[in-house]
Amino acid sequence: MMNRPPSLNARVVSFAPVALDADTPPLVCARQLILERAVEMARCEEGTRRGEDIEALHDMRVWSRRLREALEIFAFCFPERQYDRLYGRVRQVTRTLGAARNADVAVAFFSEQHGRAPELVARFALEDLLRRLVKQQRRERERMQERLSNKVKAAELPAAFEAAFQKLAQVSPGRRRGPRTAGRLARTLLLQRLQEVFKVRAAITGEDHVEGLHNLRIAVKKLRYALEVLGFAAGEGVAENLSFFKKLQTVLGDLHDRDVFIALVHERYASLQQQTFAGLLLEGYEKVFAHLAQERQQFYEKYLKLFGPATLTEWRKRVVPPRPRPALPKTEAPSSPAAEAS
Q1: Domain check: are 55 and 163 in the same one?
Q2: Residue 27 and residue 90: Cα distance in Å, rounded?
Q3: pLDDT digit string, tens, across residues 81-136
Q4: Which domain holds residue 286?
Q5: Alpha carbon distance 33, 145 (integer Å)
Q6: At residue 333, does pLDDT exceed 80?
């Protein structure tokens, strides 16, 4: 799915996609994979600006992150100033969408919690929280739409990348930096990303280390994106590895969401403590907090079961493609005695 040929819009010069493999030069891979992600991101902009479907915003934000990851992976293909300029524009898209998407997630989550809450006081507290969150959601949507219309030009990015690649194509292969093949890039990068996952995991001090678990989620996500981008050059088992790290990222994401939601509940609870006659609301928020804490514990246990026993040695064999064996020199077959006699 990730490496299908992009269908470019009219503002982008068309190109003939090629089949990518481990021997493909990185610049060829970069052009195809980066343009694909830029086009997919730009396609989501209209629906995101309209705001009729929250999934359009979600999809646009995800594609912007995938585009940033592809850019980071192929950064060596670009002159530094050109890379910084292009990366900055994509990062601006991600940041523009972030607060609105987070507000959407919070409203959707606490709305579901309200529908399932068995205690009346908990529903009372959730209604109080949702009134505040819906107002924030509306404000963030308006800010996002204003920035998309007046500052962030996401629809122009595919053409900007195509123009950049046209300039890069004029550089002679001998002057290009970095690995010469996608296979070499995959071996180096996947090992680096995998080592980072285990380094971050080793720094986690326990269940309550919120920042450490959040950092692990980010490291796992970057490894997963690298597998998506370079899967065609990563050897066997890519689909299985992607499935595992996607599942791990989801569990860590659910765990992180509970930390964010617990912080929201704590903030509102603290403000209510300063108010008179807020006893019923405080009781409701205590029940909401207890439920979130229980869910967090369950997700932490899932994480331990899924990734607790994992070792770098084991996963290096599974994720990092082996070096290709050097071709054996060709030898001529010995001539037969009859041929020598003739």
Answers
A1: yes
A2: 19
A3: 999 999 999 999 999 999 999 999 999 999 999 999 999 999 999 999 999 999 99
A4: 179-314
A5: 28
A6: no
